[in-house]
Design a protein that fits this description.
The chain is mainly alpha-helical and about 600 residues long. Helix content is about 75%, strand content about 0%.
Length: about 600
């Protein structure tokens, strides 16, 4: 009886679900007085489509939605219209390829006054086109022309501007001249917002054009917009378009059409336009090739009255150096280096910081002699700058600069300043200096490193900031590899072991333990047992739990990376670890157990 009851219940449920009218339920939800319920309903329209199937979605659901979007109160609900513009693209998956049915509804939404609704409608329409490009000639091109020629309100023409690149890409060849003509009309539209939208999309539209079409129909519009008086955002967009155009043209064509636009932009009265040129100068320089002289315009940017423009112009120097056909030594010396002294004294700290960042790569390109003559005093001054980020940027290239100068040029000029920076008030600078020490060690050799930098480097192991101590630990490995095992065991290791004492503080003791894996990499197993293991045993008996579990972790590293011998491990190391397994601190127990598992 129980089984039959369950069967009858399931049958009733199936019948009730079969009788449920999803479409009517959806209509009721959309007619609800609550805007939230209406919006949530339209967000789930795909569920209704899935339940109805493709045929009913095409014949019933889609016409209903298209109609309500134009009726009260939905036509005045901007949030509802925005969600609807997004949902049309999703509905494309449920109508069996009948995407042409979505073009007209999206055209209606693309004419709305609210910007976000129009943008979402165009985005959905482009999504539909990308899925089915064959729609463009018959359905989307007429839509584009209707939007572009709609005179009652400018918003439709703004939407048309965003549609041009996608439509042109898939239009028939006989339709493309009309599309180019429509675009040029919008570029000359009386409404500033339309001209701005057209200029904003010009670089995407130009990228779709053949060169001959660009020269015939669009190049004069490009030049006209670059001289727009009312809106600097249009002139900014022209700079971005120049980059696309320059890559399409030959050197001679660029001299005729694009160079004058870029040079005018570099001298533009609006700092935003000049800033755009500065930020994109490396790409423009590369696109225009070495046959076009852009250096006078660049020098003007380095001397700009706005600090943001000067900063970006300085920052782009390094990128220009790294280009395949980048700045030459002659261009550096004739145009850029003469500006460095003025920039080094710039009142704006961000400009000096940007200059400090490029000095290393510039010095590497110019070589030792020119660096000593023209940059050395500037580098020394910036290392002493009152702002820490200026000093930090110079120090981050200290190793590179020192490699260029060599030992002789370094000792008398920059080394005293570098030594002072090891104890700078800002920990970022101390850390950056520590990170440069391995390069300096290779350059100096053993004797000079011991006399000039060793004590300062070892003092960074006791720094009050963890990041500085950690940087010293991580960079020590490269130093010991440079100077070899004999120097490490006989000279460095005793000094490191002397730092470990109860009076030194537990952070120093932990730092010393963390050093051991870096140092022992160049040591033999016998040397590890003789010098390192006794310290680890001492640390395992420390009163501070952090020190003890740090000792266990170092034991683990030694057991994994050194063949210490089974007898030594069983007699010396394992008893200590077994004892620590019963420590009162749970972390010590955990690491002791893990280390003990590695013992034979």
């Amino acid at each position: 009886l129980n089984v039959s009851y369950k069967g009858r219940k399931a049958c009733v449920l199936k019948l009730s679900m079969a009788d449920f009218n999803y479409f009517e339920f959806f209509k009721e939800e959309l007619k609800n007085e609550s805007a939230l319920i209406r919006i949530n309903a339209i967000k789930r329209v795909t569920l209704i489509s899935s339940a109805l199937g493709a045929t009913r979605t095409i014949n019933e659901l889609l016409p209903y939605i298209v109609q309500i979007v134009q009726d009260e109160p939905w036509c005045n609900d901007e949030e509802f219209l925005f969600i609807m513009a997004r949902q049309y693209a999703v509905l494309s998956e449920y109508i069996n390829g009948r995407d042409e049915l979505l073009v007209a509804p999206l055209e209606h939404l693309a004419s709305q006054e609210e910007t976000v609704i129009r943008d979402e409608a165009i985005k959905s329409l482009c999504s539909v086109v990308a899925k089915q490009p064959s729609l463009v000639p018959e359905y989307v091109v007429p839509t584009l022309h209707r939007l572009a020629t709609k005179a009652d309100f400018f918003s439709a023409r703004v939407s048309a501007c965003a549609l041009f690149p996608t439509v042109y890409k898939y239009a028939n060849e006989d339709q493309k001249p009309g599309i180019r003509k429509a675009y040029t009309m919008l570029c000359a539209d009386d409404t500033p917002m339309v001209r701005r939208a057209a200029a904003h999309r010009m670089r995407e539209f130009v990228a779709c054009l053949a060169k001959q079409d660009l020269l015939a129909d669009i190049i004069h519009v490009y030049k006209q917009l670059s001289k727009e008086d009312a809106q600097d955002v249009i002139r900014v967009a022209s700079v971005h378009t120049s980059l696309v155009v320059a890559r399409m043209f030959t050197a001679e064509e660029n001299r005729q059409h694009t160079v004058s636009v870029i040079q005018s932009a570099a001298h533009d009265r609006s700092w935003r336009v000049r800033l755009t040129v500065a930020k994109n100068f490396a790409q423009l320089f590369e696109a225009l090739t070495t046959d076009v002289d852009m250096m006078p315009a660049f020098v003007h940017l380095l001397k700009d009255s706005e600090q943001e423009v000067r900063k970006e112009a300085v920052r782009v120097i390094e990128t220009c150096l790294n280009l395949p056909n980048g700045l030459t030594n002659k261009q550096l010396q004739d145009f850029i280096l003469p500006q460095f002294q003025t920039l080094g004294l710039d009142s704006a700290q961000p400009v000096r910081a940007a200059l400090a960042q490029v000095l290393g790569p510039v010095a590497k390109r110019l070589g030792r002699d020119i660096t000593q003559r023209q940059l050395l005093s500037l580098i020394a001054d910036l290392m002493k700058d009152e702002f820490y980020d200026v000093r930090l940027n110079v120090v981050s290239h200290a190793g590179l600069i020192c490699e260029v100068l060599g030992v002789d040029g370094l000792v008398h000029s920059l080394l005293p300043t570098i030594q002072d920076l090891v104890t700078d008030n800002h920990w970022h600078i101390r850390q950056s200096v520590v990170e440069q020490v391995p390069k300096l060690a290779k350059l100096f050799g053993v004797e000079m490193f011991q006399s000039k930098l060793e004590s300062l480097f070892l003092s960074s192991l006791r720094d009050s900031v963890h990041s500085v101590r950690q940087a010293a630990v991580m960079n020590l490995k490269e130093i010991v590899e440079t100077f070899g095992p004999q120097w490490t065991v006989e000279h460095l290791l005793p000094k490191l072991l002397d730092q470990y004492s109860q009076a030194s503080g537990y952070t120093t003791r932990i730092t010393t333990l963390n050093l051991l894996p870096q140092v022992s990499g160049v040591m033999t197993a016998d040397q590890v047992m003789q010098f390192v293991v006794p310290l680890l045993i001492k640390a395992a008996k420390d009163t501070v739990p952090n020190v003890k579990f740090c000792a266990c972790r170092v034991f683990m590293w030694m057991l994994e990376n050194h063949s210490l011998g089974s007898v030594s491990i069983k007699q010396v190391i394992k008893p200590i670890l077994l004892e620590l397994e019963h420590d009162s601190d749970i972390d010590v127990q955990y690491y002791a157990q893990r280390a003990a598992q590695l013992c034979p």
